[in-house]
Amino acid sequence: MVRIALIGAGRIARVHAQSVAQLPGCCLAGVYDPDPQQGTRFAREFSTALFPSLEDLWADPDVDAVAVCSPLFAHRDHVVGAARAGKHIFCEKPIALTLDQADEMIAAAREAGVVFMVGHVVRFMVEYVRIQEWAAQGVLGDLRSAYAARFSGLSAGSWRGWMLEPGRGLGVLDAHIHDLDYLQWLLGPARRVRAAGWRFPTGTWAHTTSWVEFAGGSVAVAEGSFAVPQGFPFTMYLRVIGSEGAAVFAFEGPDYATPSRKTLSLYRQGHPPQTVDTTPINPYLEEMRAFLQCIRTGTWPDRGHPDDARAALALTLAVQQALETGEAIEPRPSS
Amino acid sequence: MVRIALIGAGRIARVHAQSVAQLPGCCLAGVYDPDPQQGTRFAREFSTALFPSLEDLWADPDVDAVAVCSPLFAHRDHVVGAARAGKHIFCEKPIALTLDQADEMIAAAREAGVVFMVGHVVRFMVEYVRIQEWAAQGVLGDLRSAYAARFSGLSAGSWRGWMLEPGRGLGVLDAHIHDLDYLQWLLGPARRVRAAGWRFPTGTWAHTTSWVEFAGGSVAVAEGSFAVPQGFPFTMYLRVIGSEGAAVFAFEGPDYATPSRKTLSLYRQGHPPQTVDTTPINPYLEEMRAFLQCIRTGTWPDRGHPDDARAALALTLAVQQALETGEAIEPRPSS
């Protein structure tokens, strides 16, 4: 039985608590939140313990693993603290605010010999997985072009407050990283990026159109927005064109679990077009299942590997720099 | 009664012959095609005269106007010839293969005092018109970002043969120019473009992803492909995001007249989302109606003005050069 404590009692902690409750072989070991009211409410809702401090959590031998669900600016402290306490770590994406933080976190987890996984949940969404499989199996031929989009308005929830503050969050890049990570999974390492967009009054970016050149020669455009008007549906879109085929995923709806429109299509030379039925699978459940499997086998994950998460952050920060400078930026390679 | 002769008896000539047949105040004055068999078949089908040569057509005082429906490489000769013969001119898009040709054609028509219009039919498609109106009326606020796409596989028809031959056609840029023209209508003059794509074995471009920077500061991405696999639906897509609203047009279907999916949506701050019903209007009929109106009033058109068509060609050739060089290219301004 893997006993998992949650750090942070916000929106995404609730999602992971539900996964832990549903999965065999694990249970909730408690929750910590710097806001005692929020922590108490959460602990009561999920019938779990409330840790009065992180030190209590680190010291508890009945905690095997943590799910870091705190705001981005706190990831480093929480992951490094958990590693030093010998806990396995699932951490929300983006891995960190800076590459130095990410490197420090990865080193701490390696040194402690604990499992470390970053919750790049798009790698567990069945439609994105299917397209990656088609690509990897050669069904699409040589991949030549991709377009990915992710649009949502700002929710009224206060949980996004930190996300828009420079030095604490990444604005829309917090969502855009999903597509940048996925595109590197699909097309290999990016070598250069350009971007254009506009900012929130706080200074973080509200919208980006990113032009990504890959080491393999292909080019992708990714667009991300937190600045679409009221009523604009949450939108995910991916189109990949290869020499032998093309795949399109189009999604609109309030959230991934409740599409108002969802299609996954495969087009291949010499075959009739194929609309692929995808049974809805909860990708958060699947990523938590993968984390548990990693703990059992003592390995780091295939999907959500911290090195990939670090590469996604490097590309995301390159986009940010491209937005700020108007120049073409190369992502900082890992040291 | 405006008597209109067709130059070229191919696919698009058929479309314009049908418009002429439907519109009041005009009639077909005959057809010319260098292939006598094709010309004869066409003349019989539309119960009109067959001109044995262009000289016969130019010399016929019963021809008031021509619709130039010949392949791109022949536009210059046909437009300049018609102008010198004093005929009003409707010419298919793109206006010409080169800017020098376009300038020569415009000068010839001006000198002859005839009406000259270029068939940029997207400016007559009601959904594109609606979005342009919203933008012009300020409904969307300051325009910040646009994405336009146009995808079709190569039809089996031999009519596209010349289109793929360097020096005779522009490959996919023959379709991509629709979006480049529209984006300049919407966002003003482009100042710089980058592009990536791949070629047909013939050497013309099969696919382009174009990054267009506008003098006003906004950036648009436009994608065009003749290289999508078999079965991929003919696709038109336009999304415009402004400070106060966003508009999305999504179209799939065998052709514009027979959508399998079509939505036009308007999202505005402080308003519920609006799905706009667009009665299907034949845009080819509307552009021919506008041409007739120009002849009646002796003016050049608002939509399909040769100067705009020339600017669209300048941007298209800049995209071509960007594809070839990998560099950022500024469209050549009009002299």
Structural notes for this entry:
Two copies of one chain form a homodimer. The first copy, chain A, has 335 residues and is of the alpha/beta class. Helix content of chain A is 34%, strand content 27%. Chain A has nine helices and 13 strands. In chain A, the strands form two sheets. Chain A has an eight-stranded mixed β-sheet, with helices on one face. In chain A, β8 and β9 (219-225) form a beta hairpin. Chain A is globular and about 60 Å long. The two termini of chain A are 37 Å apart. The relative contact order of chain A is 0.15. The model of chain A has no long low-confidence stretch (mean pLDDT 95). The interface between A and B is medium-sized, with 34 and 34 residues.
Shape of chain A: globular
Tell me the span between the first and last alpha carbons of chain A: 37 Å
SSE order of chain A, one letter for each helix or strand: EHEHHEHEHEHEHEEEEEEEHH
The CATH superfamily of the largest domain in chain A is known as Dihydrodipicolinate Reductase, domain 2
Q: Low-confidence segments of chain A, ≥5 residues, pLDDT <50?
A: none
The average pLDDT value of chain A, as a whole number, equals 95
Radius of gyration of chain A: 20 Å
CATH topological fold name of the largest domain in chain A: Dihydrodipicolinate Reductase, domain 2
Biggest interface, chains and residues, is:
A-B, 34 and 34 residues
Oligomer: homodimer
Number of strands of chain A: 13
- Report helical residue fraction of chain A: 25-40%
Q: Helix segment count of chain A?
A: 9
Strand content of chain A: 25-35%
Instruction: Assign the CATH class of the largest domain in chain A.
Output: Alpha Beta
Please identify, by name, the CATH architecture of the largest domain in chain A: 2-Layer Sandwich
Q: Mind describing the biggest β-sheet of chain A?
A: 8 strands, mixed
